[in-house]
């Protein structure tokens, strides 16, 4: 079965002056494509038995006491280019707390740390490629890119395949956030339809009354409808 063709022009350029970090980090010479070795394709694998009972519950998995903020469910499926499910994939997420601050020693934003929020979780996709996280909606935060740039509310996603050498990273944004259109990182993507694939729509069918809203974020690994990945434009 042949792979579906992809539009490489939809991917952001490596050098994007509006995103200041790309100026010193972008390559100055042509890229070289190396052949994957056996170690990159076959191992080591993540031990599924290491997964904890609360690993996909970021509200409780840090201290056991509930984190502060708006409770949300983030769910979806991991799919290939033919919409076939990808079971057994390891998904990891990390995010800022409700005030927009990460639990990281280099994060100096004025928002307070939540003592009960660690900001990271993980889960394994089911036979139908499905996953689910219970978490707190992250806050927006300023960053030193321009005079007054702010990152939209977002959650970082990491997808592992059959080995740690098969890893894709992306970000999920929230429907209706006005900062998405103003973000210099988002604006490196030239195709708005591709940006839309990174925005999770509100899903009231999965929301829990008097408890939490839900957002649906499907991840497509390859093909014309693939999710935009930060570290590997051609997909898994």
From TrEMBL:
Select a single GO molecular function from the record's annotations and give it.
protocatechuate 3,4-dioxygenase activity
Q: Name one Pfam family in it.
A: Dioxygenase_C
Q: What class of enzyme is it?
A: oxidoreductase
Q: Does this UniProt record's set of keywords contain Cytoplasm? A: no
| Nucleotide-binding among keywords | no
InterPro entries in alphabetical order: Intradiol_dOase_C, Intradiol_dOase_core, Intradiol_RC_Dioxygenase, PCDO_beta_N, Protocat_dOase_b
List each copy of the Protocatechuate 3,4-dioxygenase beta subunit N-terminal domain by range. Answer: 5-33
- Provide this UniProt record's keywords sorted from A to Z: Dioxygenase, Oxidoreductase
Q: Report residue spans for region: Disordered.
A: 1-23
Enzyme Commission code(s) on record: 1.13.11.3
- Identify the residues that the record assigns to the Intradiol ring-cleavage dioxygenases domain, covering every copy: 42-223
The family database entries (PANTHER family) matched by this protein are listed as: DIOXYGENASE, PUTATIVE (AFU_ORTHOLOGUE AFUA_2G02910)-RELATED, INTRADIOL RING-CLEAVAGE DIOXYGENASES DOMAIN-CONTAINING PROTEIN
The UniProt family comment states:
Belongs to the intradiol ring-cleavage dioxygenase family.
Protein name from the UniProt record: Protocatechuate 3,4-dioxygenase subunit beta
Organism, as annotated: Arenibacterium halophilum
């Amino acid at each position: 079965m042949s792979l579906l063709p992809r539009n490489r022009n939809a991917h952001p350029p490596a050098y994007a002056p509006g995103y200041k970090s790309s100026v010193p980090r972008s390559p100055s010479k042509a890229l070289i494509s190396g052949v994957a070795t056996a170690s990159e394709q076959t191992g080591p694998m993540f031990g599924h038995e290491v997964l904890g009972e609360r690993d996909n519950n970021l509200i409780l998995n840090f201290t056991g006491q509930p984190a502060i903020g708006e409770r949300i469910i983030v769910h979806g499926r991991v799919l290939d280019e033919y919409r076939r499910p990808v079971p057994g994939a390891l998904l990891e997420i990390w995010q800022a707390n409700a005030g927009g601050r990460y639990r990281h020693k280099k994060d100096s934003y004025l928002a307070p740390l939540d003592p009960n929020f660690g900001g990271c979780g993980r889960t394994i996709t089911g036979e139908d490629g499905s996953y689910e996280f219970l978490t707190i909606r992250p806050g927006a935060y300023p960053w030193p890119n321009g005079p007054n740039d702010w990152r939209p509310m977002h959650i970082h996603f990491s997808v592992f395949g059959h080995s740690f050498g098969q890893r894709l990273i992306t970000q999920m944004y929230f429907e209706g956030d006005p900062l998405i259109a103003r973000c210099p990182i988002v604006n490196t993507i030239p195709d708005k339809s591709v940006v839309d694939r990174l925005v999770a729509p509100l899903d009231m069918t999965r929301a829990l009354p008097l408890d939490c809203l839900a957002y649906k974020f499907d991840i497509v690994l390859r093909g014309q409808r693939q999710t935009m990945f930060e570290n590997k434009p051609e997909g898994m």
